[in-house]
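Schema walkthrough. Field components (list of strings):
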Amino acid sequence: MDKIAALGRQGLAVIASFGRSGRFLFGVLSGVPRPITGFPLLVQQLYFVGVLSLAIVVVSGLFIGMVLALQGYTILSDFGSESAIGQMIALTLVRELGPVVTALLFAGRAGSALTAEIGLMKATEQLSSMEMMGVDPLRRVVAPRLWAGFIAMPVLAVIFTVVGIWGGMLVGVEWLGVFDGAYWGNMQSSVDFVDDVLNGLLKSVVFGFVCAWIAVYQGYDCIPTSAGISSATTKTVVYSSLAVLGLDFVLTAVMFGDF
Amino acid sequence: MGNRRIEVIVGLFMIAGLAAILFLALQVSGLSPKSASDRYTLYANFNDAGGLAPRGRVSMAGVTIGTIESVTLNKETFQARVALAIESDVDNIPTDSAAVIRTSGLLGDQYVDISVGGDMESLKPGDTFYSTQSAMNLERLISNFASGR
Amino acid sequence: MDSSAYISFDNVVFSRSDRRILDGVSLQIPRGKVTAIMGPSGTGKTTLLRLIGGQLKPDSGTIMVAGQDVPHLKRKALYALREKMGMLFQTGALFTDLNVYENVAFPLREHTQLPEDMIRDIVLMKLEAVGLRGARDLMPAELSGGMTRRVALARSIALDPELIMYDEPFTGQDPIAMGVLIKLIRDLNSSMGLTSVLVSHDVPESLSICHYACIIADGKVIGEGTPEQLRDHPSERVQQFLGGQPDGPVPFHYPVADVAADFGVKGEWFSG
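Field assembly_structure (string):
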């Protein structure tokens, strides 16, 4: 009986936190953005969230592209169609790995930092003092970070994809000796701009929104102690990763499924 | 000033993103500035369209000159009706040319190859190829060979 | 109701997860004076300040600030009212990513469209008032605790508020820093005509600067008046708090079951 009650209590807590995060999002987005003070804040957050994540995204993209080329070559050469690795690498990166891996890296690199930063601002009463100064922290602190995450993710994802394709070319063409023209030609005839590139981009837009939302909400909602902040940071990474993978399945089914 | 530097770096970051998407559009998906409006449609009827699929390649003498737009069934003749989007600068395909379904390699994708005829007149948008050659069916070839016919 | 009261609480009840923190508090805070709210730790003194600022809403009762019913204000009106309030937090709550100058300039940049040179003049004036004009380029992490509070004070008076609230300004300060803060609070009150509310449990310091004080314990006001009136207050609990005696009407022990029951001792000898 007690166990059932505990389950019910947990269920209610989960639903309540969904409700709180929804209301929180509404509060953030409904605040009228003020272009004059808002824009420099957004640029600053784009720097922290986007530019500083660039290194890890580029390096990961390069290696994933090279690994795909190696694996693809081994498998495809059994069928004598190793010239198809361009197509294979491009499709996997554009449709799946680009958006998904970037989102996972983003959650670990930028999402956790956002949560910790906002959580610490809450713990040191900076948010509270802002409120008492008549400045809405949702608009001043949270909104620029949310928008920055939302904008930075697709940019990072396309850079990841391009670097991956280039890395695949390094291994496939320069090292394993696939014909250059076949690499690009197969790619071009099989990748469609709208169906593949734009859908992949749409995925990363959705992931960017979800990851940034989870990160700022966890920071804003955390218990303002050191233990609370560390658990909120962990939650950000775990929830973002789960949300990205789950949403990826749904989006893939809708975009690329034939039904 | 630190702010200025950050603004410039963020600007470069956004430009890098735009360049990347441009690269994906032009180099990876082969989207040419010539969009769909710069193409015209020809039709070809096949008894067996085999593995033809939309977005497949249409080539002439090995050079890609267009894509397959759609593959539908003509309910009256029970033939496959394939719409081909041909680049508009290739506007002098002779009317007696044949549309042939070929396979790249033994197991590769199937595509439409246009064998050029000798007529002085050329096909106009919306025209249908007079002569076609259906997909080579490997299975049928082998069974024909085995039964000695 | 006293017409000179800037803030008035009428029978305010506030509870947090079943625990009653304020249980029917009524008090008046006069305009242009320094009012000290004292009481043992954990009796809801900071809660009182947050109620004034509208960050918390009471379960029942009315809170009037400058003639406005705070708990029922619309968001916009509340934010407008807060521009007239300054609050000094216990930790200072400076923005750690901005330097001292930018911290003080923050409310000006957010709420006014002043040109940059005018902002500069105001910021330097406020920093001068707290004696830290020379520290303008330091980051908050480089400041000592006393300096942090002084910068925070400069920031909270940047918009020339009508009301300033101090949350435990003396806690954890060395005697010199404390002296500086006492002097600043008194000077600001007399020179700018601010209504000041001071929340503290440091009795001698608070009594030395306030015009009026009230003592809260167990969610109720147990004594109020001028410092002189309080020293002669008849209530034992007021005297225990002012004198700092360890045991008295405010018990030494947190409410708990009988000692014998906790330690599993049967006899009566242990629980004397």
